[in-house]
Amino acid sequence: MNQINPAYVAVFLLCAMGVWGCSQQKTGAIAAKINELEARYAKLEDDYRTLHASNEQNRKKLTQIEAQRVTLEGEKSDLTQQVKTVGTERDMIRKQLTQRIQERDVAQTNLSQFGRELQNLAGRVEAAVNNPSGNSISSIIPASRRNE
Prior knowledge:
Elements: H1 6-23, H2 27-130
């Protein structure tokens, strides 16, 4: 038992050197590094929470805007339909107006023609009354019947 195996001595020395090396590290530097990493982690967590809250607000706004867009599209389609209806009504009214203008023009032409015929007839009646010649019986024929 007096002899010690050199492998045991090597393992013992290796372990002793490892313990000595670990004890030689600056514990303050490691602690500072750990504190720095924890601070960065806390800051990243705060940033994550802020971004998450902002994302939720933006998602709510997006939902509201989407609903508003759908509403506006519905209103747009209603207004488009109203414009088509009003356009159709406008065209019908224009046709009616054109017809009424033509009717008015025809009535005005007939009225002016009737007025001329009436003036001719009045002139002939006046001439017959003022002309007491031998023709006591004169035939008065309206202008509209002269062609018959």
